[in-house]
Each structure stands twice: as structure tokens, then as C-alpha cells.
Amino acid sequence: MKYNLMDHLLNPVIVTDENFKIIYYNHICSTYFKLPPRKLNKIVSIENLIITDQINILDKIKTAKEFSTPIVSKEIDITLPEVESNSQTVILKFIPFESETIIHLWDFSIEKHLHEKYKLKIQELKETHEQIMQSDKLAALGELISGIGHEVSNPLTIISDRIYRIEENLITSNMDELSDNIKDIDQGVKRIS
Question: What global pTM score does this model have?
Fold first, then answer.
């Protein structure tokens, strides 16, 4: 058969005749479509093998034949026959060859899943970065509050002690020490300010 060379390709390749019926598929198709060869041979129409609502496969084949040039589809999602929950992201290349059309599938499912995981990881990193930044801000704020508390607490302790001494000085009538205690209170208040 003239298409046996395509069995060496590692991407699925399907050949359709002028009536859009499948006349050949390479051995990778069995693995890709998750169907044994006997079931794959029973699928006659290309529309029953490559299931999508994003492009009209028959129109693409007609256009490729009409202009005698390969046509490349946009990135589309296809559903595999007998595996409804498994969507694949592919690009299809329709290559006219004599009266037939070669359909070459490029599977981008892995790349798409990797890209989705990459976007998710980037989002997680952004969120983690925001949490770290928030944590750093809170830590800095905590240190600042602690420093301010310390700077206020020390003068208040001195003021409290000096008030107690002033009371004693008033009882003992020790005016020299009273004056020193009032100066210490004044310095403490200025330090707090």
C-alpha cells in the first residue's frame, strides 16, 4: 500500500477518499484513539472518528482539495470515540493527495495541560508572594509597635517612680531632690512626645 511509510510517523495520520471515507490510518491511531484496530476499522466516516463542533472537517477537506493546497486548522478540542469524557486539543492538517486527503493530527493536549498547570502555579506563587509581603508588613508593624511601646514605657516608668519620690520629698520637705525629680518627669514627658 502506498501509505505504509506513514506508519513510521509518531502522530496519527488518516487518509480519506473523495467520499470522505477512511481508507487508511497509521498504527499510532489505534493508540491515540484508544481503540483496537478491529474497532477502528469499523469507523468508516472521518466525522465519526474526529468528533468536534469547532470546525467542519468535511468543509476543510473540500477546501484543501479545491485549492490543491494543505489547510491547517486552528487549535480545536476533539472528543475521542467511545471515550466521551476525554477531550484532546489538536491541530489538524488536511493535505490533498491525488483524489484522497491525508489528515495529520498534532496533539497539543499535553502542552495545553502543562500551560494550565503553569498558569495555576503562577497564580499560586502570586498569592504566596502576597501572603509573604503581608506577613512581612505585619512583622515590621509589630516591631515598630514594640519599639514605640518600649520608648513610651521606659519614660512612663521613670515618671511613675519620680511621682512616688516627689510624694516622699513633700513629706520630708527635701526641696533639692524634689526639683531633680520634677526635671526627670519633664524630660520623660518630652521623650514620650
Answer: 0.58
The DSSP code sequence of the chain is -TTGGGGG-SS-EEEE-TTSBEEEE-THHHHHTT--HHHHHH--BHHHHSB-SSS-HHHHHHHHHHHTS-EEPPPEEEEETTEEEEEEEEEEEEEEETTEEEEEEEE-HHHHHHHHHHHHHHHHHHHHHHHHHHHHHHHHHHHHHHHHHHHHHHHHHHHHHHHHHHHHHHHHT-HHHHHHHHHHHHHHHHHH-
Q: What is the pLDDT of residues 114-158, one digit of tens each?
A: 778 888 889 999 999 999 999 999 999 999 998 888 888 888 888
